[in-house]
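Record type: monomer structure entry
Structure origin: computed from sequence
Chain ID: A
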Amino acid sequence: RNKAGTVAVSRWTGVDLGDGDNHFEVIVRDRAGNEIRRLEHMVHYSGPPAHAELVPSLSHLVADGKNSPVIAVRLRDQDGFPVRAGVVGQLGVNAPYLLQVRADALDRDPLNFQPRKLQYIVARDGIAYIKLQPTTRTGEAVLNLELVNGPQDVRAWLEPQERDWILVGLAEGTVGHNNVSGNMENLSAADIDENIYQDGRVAFFAKGQVRGEWLLTISYDTARNRGDVDD
């Protein structure tokens, strides 16, 4: 109560809340018991995750081989409200990617059997931050989440790290001149060119980023001839 006795605050704890909307109502009466005011407040207690969506702005979707890609997923209940913090759910990820928690567990005990599904924990605003093992492999990472309505996939595209092009090339060759005399058989009989002979090889390798989103790798070697394909 305040000193004037005009305001009082009552705090209640341990009030049971059900999943979904919880309606609170306060009725203010005067000394005679007449209702002079009615206060209402709705508290939504989020239920289990029912829907999931990618949040690109909170994700780190770069495959640089050093840092863990982070996929931010917003989880909502059946009514579309963000799932409350601390809720735990199960998830997996499609190959060739690996969840960081599974990689850590394998490092600690490679021989220990791990369940196929691992867990995620919801943070503030219904967001779960899911880390993958660092990788240089770009492409689509597919998370498999277990929700109240059944499994749902969340897809995120891992982009390559911005980097300079790598260009490597080589060329080698041999050129000679045949000149043989004083023998009983000449070069023509031995099926050898009487004049110039040559042999050589050209090879190159290139790897780099194209238009900021594609990682291109090109290689060619004349020593590895595959017929019409290389021609």
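Annotation 1: The helical segments are 100-108.
Annotation 2: The two ends are 93 Å apart (CA to CA).
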